[in-house]
Amino acid sequence: MIQEFKDFIAKGNVMDMAVGIIIGAAFTAIVTSLVGDLINPIIGVITGGIDFSNLFVNLGEGEYASLAAAREAGAPVFAYGAFITAVINFLIIAFVVFLLVKMVNRIKAAAEKPDDVAPEVPTGPSELDVLLEIRDALKK
């Protein structure tokens, strides 16, 4: 059973998937920073200073200045701004993954495509033809 597990882990697909998951996790952190630190402030300027990550509806009692304060107090909140941020993150990640897959497929297609081979130009008799002629001439 241990040998079967080793064989399973050693397969290329499993290792490729593991590398993909690790890189994907690191890439998610980059995209989260991109959305939170660059895109959301631009959207906030366009929409008049709205910070999506802090948009929420308090479902309980009391008033809270921020989503963090409401969560710290344990108030039930409908945090639709965090959802909007997550959707933006997803769309950006999906678009970048689409571009990466498209690029990899293009590279694979170029690698699999046979090179354009120049047509063979007759250059005269081959070595075998010459040897056969010599043999035939010697027989006569």
Largest sheet: 2 strands, antiparallel
How many DSSP E strands?
A: 2
Beta content comes to under 5%
Distance between the termini: 74 Å
Mean pLDDT across residues: 80
Write down the secondary-structure element order.
Answer: HHEHEHH
- What is the count of DSSP helices, taking H or I runs of 4+ residues? 5
Provide the low-confidence segments as ranges: none
The helix-and-strand class reads: mainly alpha
Shape: elongated
Rg, please?
A: 32 Å
Strand order of the largest sheet: 1-2
Helical amount: 55-70%
Q: Give the tally of structural domains.
A: 1
Family: Belongs to the MscL family.
Keywords: Cell inner membrane, Cell membrane, Ion channel, Ion transport, Membrane, Transmembrane, Transmembrane helix, Transport
Pfam families: MscL
Protein name: Large-conductance mechanosensitive channel
What's the quick description here?
The chain crosses the membrane at residues 12-35, 77-101. The chain is mostly helical.
Plain-language structure description:
It is a single chain. The chain is mainly α and about 140 residues long. The protein has one domain. The protein is about 70% helix and about 5% strand. The chain has helices at about 1-10, 10-45, 65-70, 80-110, 125-140; strands at about 55-60, 75-80. The chain has a two-stranded antiparallel ribbon with strand order 1-2. It is elongated. The termini are far apart. The relative contact order is 0.07. The model has no long low-confidence stretch (mean pLDDT about 80).
State the main characteristics.
cell membrane; ion channel; 140 residues; mainly alpha; elongated; ion transport; 5 helices
